[in-house]
Structure formats: C-alpha cells, structure tokens
C-alpha cells in the first residue's frame, strides 16, 4: 500500500481545466489560528511555485484562466504558514493567516451555509464586510 | 456580488471525470472534534444524495469509476455531523466523526506531510494502523 508518489505535488494527476487545458489540483485554505476551513481553490504548477516562493497564496482561476494572487484586488491576502500535500500528492492544504474575509461574498469563510438532511439551507453568521465596499 | 446559486450543490459546475464522464465536486472531510482536515475526495450527485440520506460519507472514486462508501472495506467510516457548501456551491465540506484512520496509508489524516519552501518533505506523525492489517 505504501506507494507514496515521489514528486510533490503530482500535477499530472490533476483534473483537466476544460477552458485552459491546465491540469489543476484542489487547494484547501485553512485558518492557522482558528482551524476553520476558509475556501477551496485550484492550483496549476505555476501557482504552486509562486505560493512556495512568495509565502502568499496564489491560485489558478478557472473562470479567468490565469493566476489569481489572492487579495490582489480585495487586499484580503493569505500569508502561508505551512504547506501540506496529501497521501496521493493530488491535494494541497495551506495553513494561512487570512487578512479580512476569505470569501468574495464578504463572509469570513466561503463555508457560511449549512445544508440539512432535507436540503434546507441555513446561513449561520453575518458578513464581515460588504462585498460592494471591497469589489464595487 | 450576491449571486448565490439557487441549487445546492451545483454539480453542473463540477470538474469532468475523464474516465466516467461524471461531473464531480470536491468534498473536504474535517474532523468534527479536532478540526483537523482529514482528506479530500470527490462526489457526484448520487454520492451527495446517499451521504445526506444515510448520514455516512459516500464519495465517487475517480479511479474505480463508482460510488465509494468510505469505510466499507476498512471499517474506517465517517459519520457526518454537519454538511456545508461554499459560496459558489461547487465545494462540499463535511464535518465528520472519523472511525480509525482516514488515510489508506494508515495515518489519522491524509495530510501527514509538510512541504518546505525548498520542496523538502517531512512526515511529522506516526501511522495509526498498518495498512496491511486493514486492506491486506
């Protein structure tokens, strides 16, 4: 069972970005202080390298088809304190110091909604910031 | 900015599974007690519905091209205590009670390795179980 991949991360095993042709791996950002999961975004190899070299989270935007330096527009950047990869080397976990709100909707985390067994949806926290103030 | 999708989750926005043609969303499992991120796997709509109806984590295995009822072979099942979706409704977060080891390598979490800025890799914990005992 111990067939740990030698190369980390293994972008060849990534999912295909149909728009750009890139191979992308999911990257989870977790708040290094609270432990809260803040968001999930995607990385190609360039985003990975820039994240490691700068210590700031850089993702690949599937919708825009280019690197997304988190916080470039909003100021809500993520300082990367620790980087992990999973057993299969196809998922990345960043432990980050989050400035402001991780979510473009103005919430601390993109996971601000819970889903019940009956598919009911509950928002259980207030916005930290008004998105119109940040992106408007 | 408040363009929250009405349908949760939005599988049409999922990544394409090249082997099966399914649209898949990433699903993060986080330990409900420790807050530790345990693993990331994938869900299609069937996996999502079965997870909600049974209260146990069910994923879609990209390699096997079928539903993967977590713990079916290993006994290391995940009881789902809370379900969240993100702002774009294209990532799922499960808060789970994990039995045994989440990782098929025998570690508590699939994230048992850290990567340094120089790409050095460090394993920072012992295995909980011997994979050969579970899957052998």
Automatic annotation (TrEMBL), chains A, B:
Mg(2+) binds at residues 86, 88, 90. Its cofactor is Mg(2+); Zn(2+). It comes from the Bacteria. Its EC number is 3.5.4.19. Binds 1 Mg(2+) ion per subunit. Binds 1 zinc ion per subunit. It catalyses: 1-(5-phospho-beta-D-ribosyl)-5'-AMP + H2O = 1-(5-phospho-beta-D-ribosyl)-5-[(5-phospho-beta-D-ribosylamino)methylideneamino]imidazole-4-carboxamide; 1-(5-phospho-beta-D-ribosyl)-ATP + H2O = 1-(5-phospho-beta-D-ribosyl)-5'-AMP + diphosphate + H(+). GO terms for molecular function: magnesium ion binding; phosphoribosyl-AMP cyclohydrolase activity; phosphoribosyl-ATP diphosphatase activity; zinc ion binding. Transmembrane segments: none annotated. It is found in: Cytoplasm. Residues 39-112 form the Phosphoribosyl-AMP cyclohydrolase domain. Zn(2+) binds at residues 87, 103, 110. The keyword Ligase does not apply. One of its GO terms (biological process) is L-histidine biosynthetic process. Coiled coil: none annotated. It is an enzyme of class 3 (hydrolase). Keywords: Amino-acid biosynthesis, Cytoplasm, Histidine biosynthesis, Hydrolase, Magnesium, Metal-binding, Zinc. InterPro entries: PRA-CH, PRib_AMP_CycHydrolase_dom, PRib_AMP_CycHydrolase_sf. Pathway: Amino-acid biosynthesis; L-histidine biosynthesis; L-histidine from 5-phospho-alpha-D-ribose 1-diphosphate: step 3/9; Amino-acid biosynthesis; L-histidine biosynthesis; L-histidine from 5-phospho-alpha-D-ribose 1-diphosphate: step 2/9. One of its GO terms (cellular component) is cytoplasm. It holds the Pfam family PRA-CH. Homodimer. Belongs to the PRA-CH family. Catalyzes the hydrolysis of the adenine ring of phosphoribosyl-AMP. This is Phosphoribosyl-AMP cyclohydrolase.
């Amino acid at each position: 069972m111990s067939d740990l991949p030698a190369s980390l991360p293994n972008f060849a095993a990534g999912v295909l970005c149909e728009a750009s042709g890139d191979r992308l791996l999911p990257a989870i950002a977790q708040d290094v202080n609270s432990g809260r999961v803040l968001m999930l975004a995607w990385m190609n190899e360039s985003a990975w390298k820039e994240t490691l070299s700068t210590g700031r989270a850089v993702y690949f935007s599937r919708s825009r088809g280019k690197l997304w330096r988190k916080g470039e527009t909003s100021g809500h950047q993520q300082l990367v304190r620790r980087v992990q990869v999973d057993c299969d080397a196809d998922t990345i976990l960043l432990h980050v110091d989050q400035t402001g709100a991780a979510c473009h909707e103005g919430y601390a985390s993109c996971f601000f909604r819970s889903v019940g067994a009956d598919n009911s949806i509950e928002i259980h926290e207030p916005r930290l910031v008004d998105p119109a103030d940040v992106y408007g």
